[in-house]
C-alpha cells in the first residue's frame, strides 16, 4: 500500500521484473499540444477523468497469473489492469479510442489516455455532446471520477495547461513545482527536467538558446 492523493492509500504491485520481459507495443498517440489546438475558438469546455481508469480495463485470465501480488495473508490477482505495467497506458488509450471512434475525427473531442476533453461553441451543443459522451460511457459501464470532471467551463486546467477558446497557457502550479524542486543531482533527475522542458518549450522564450 502506498500513500496517494488526499492521504488515501492505493494498492500497487512491483512489476519491474515483468516489465523487463515485456515487449513494448506500438500505437500512435497525438501530441498533447497539437490536440489542444482543437479547443481554439471554443466557448464551453468539459474535462473528464476516469475513476481508477486502468482498473476498468479487464485483464484476461491468461494474463492474471503474471499480475499476482503476494502479501502476508495470501496471493491476489488483478481482474482489472493495474498501474505500473509498461503497456498499460497504451492499451487504455486503445480502449477509449474504440469507445469513441468518430468524435475525435469530428474535431470536438480529445482523448489522452484516461483524460477526455470536449468543447463546443454553444451551450445547447455542449449539452448534446455531454449526453453523447455519457451515453457511450454508460453503454460500456465505465465510471468517471465526477469530483475531477469540471463541466461547461470557459477556462480550465487540462493536461498540464490552462486552456480556453482564446489561449493556451501553462498551469502555474506546474511551474511553481519546478522552482521549488532542488537542483538535479543525477542522470534520472536531469532527464525528468528535460521532459518537463520539452513539454512546455512553446511557452519558454529562447529555449534553444538556453539549451546551447
Automatic annotation (TrEMBL):
Stated name of the protein: Reverse transcriptase domain-containing protein
Which Pfam family, any one, appears in the UniProt record?
A: RVT_1
Please list the residue ranges annotated as the Reverse transcriptase domain.
Answer: 7-161
Amino acid at each position: 500500500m502506498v500513500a496517494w492523493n488526499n492521504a488515501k492509500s492505493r494498492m500497487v504491485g512491483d512489476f519491474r521484473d515483468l516489465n523487463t520481459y515485456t515487449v513494448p507495443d506500438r500505437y500512435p498517440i497525438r501530441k498533447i499540444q497539437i490536440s489542444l489546438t482543437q479547443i481554439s475558438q471554443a466557448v464551453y469546455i468539459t474535462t473528464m477523468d476516469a475513476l481508477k481508469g486502468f482498473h476498468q480495463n479487464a485483464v484476461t485470465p491468461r494474463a492474471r497469473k503474471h499480475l499476482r501480488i503476494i502479501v502476508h495473508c495470501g496471493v491476489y490477482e488483478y481482474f482489472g489492469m493495474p498501474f505500473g505495467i509498461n503497456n498499460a497506458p497504451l492499451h487504455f488509450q486503445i480502449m477509449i479510442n474504440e469507445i469513441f471512434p468518430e468524435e475525435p475525427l469530428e474535431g470536438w473531442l480529445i482523448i489522452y489516455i484516461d483524460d477526455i476533453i470536449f468543447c463546443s461553441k454553444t451551450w445547447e451543443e455542449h449539452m448534446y455532446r455531454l449526453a453523447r459522451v455519457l451515453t457511450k460511457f454508460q453503454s460500456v459501464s465505465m465510471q468517471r471520477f465526477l469530483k475531477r470532471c469540471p463541466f461547461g467551463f470557459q477556462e480550465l486546467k487540462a493536461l498540464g495547461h490552462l486552456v480556453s477558446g482564446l489561449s493556451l497557457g501553462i498551469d502555474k502550479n506546474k511551474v511553481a513545482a519546478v522552482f521549488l524542486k532542488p537542483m538535479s543531482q543525477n542522470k534520472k533527475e536531469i532527464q525528468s527536467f528535460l521532459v518537463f522542458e520539452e513539454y512546455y518549450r512553446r511557452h519558454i522564450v529562447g529555449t534553444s538558446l538556453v539549451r546551447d
